[in-house]
Amino acid sequence: MPYEPPTHTVERSLRATTGAKVVAGVDEVGRGAWAGPVTVCAAVTGLRRPPEGLTDSKLLTPKRRTALAGELESWVTAHALGHSSPQEIDELGMTAALRLAATRALDALPVRPDAVILDGKHDYLGDPWKVRTVIKGDQSCVVVAAASVIAKVRRDAMMAELGAECADFGFGDNAGYPSPVHRAALEALGPTPYHRLSWSYLDALPRWQHLKRVRSTPEALALEAGGQLGFDF
């Protein structure tokens, strides 16, 4: 399906209205997975023309996405990754875990951004960052699209490495997301140390329900449900 290429429109607007000189794009992957971290990439691109075919990582084939990520990592001005572990997700809830991962990514950049373009409609970063949220920013904004592709490829590679250790779970193919192979392995073998134990998939696994971590507040439970609905694979 044809799609409009991303532009620097939002970044130019931020520069003009806030005086920002360094604008980072931020996108996440892994929000809806059963296993593995949630990963955030922060990227800075400037206003240069991006590599051909750049768009939201979900619109690219795995082969094209991997090739494009290699181009992007040398094309961007700077980029950094931040992760929140399954244990941190269980303890903090998804929104706080996203904030932690994004802060880790932004803090790892060589220059602190003056403003951040965040994919989606919800600002999970907040103060002290100056944030502009953009729905479908991973399709419309160059800097967010670049972050989207790098985050997806790097997290998929991490999960493939775990797949060698946990072969029955098919992490190399499903990246920790729900799939028939993943579900069957959970039923037979139970969760690995890489699984999120507060997720409701355990409700359907009577043999392993004793391992579930129950959140103590309605807000935390709502965050979990929101995370599971946000499948991005």
TrEMBL record:
It catalyses: Endonucleolytic cleavage to 5'-phosphomonoester. Its cofactor is Mn(2+); Mg(2+). The keyword Nuclease applies. Its EC number is 3.1.26.4. It comes from the Bacteria. The keyword Nuclease applies. A divalent metal cation binds at D27, E28, D119. Its main location: cytoplasm. Endonuclease that specifically degrades the RNA of RNA-DNA hybrids. Belongs to the RNase HII family. This is Ribonuclease HII. It comes from Streptomyces blastmyceticus.
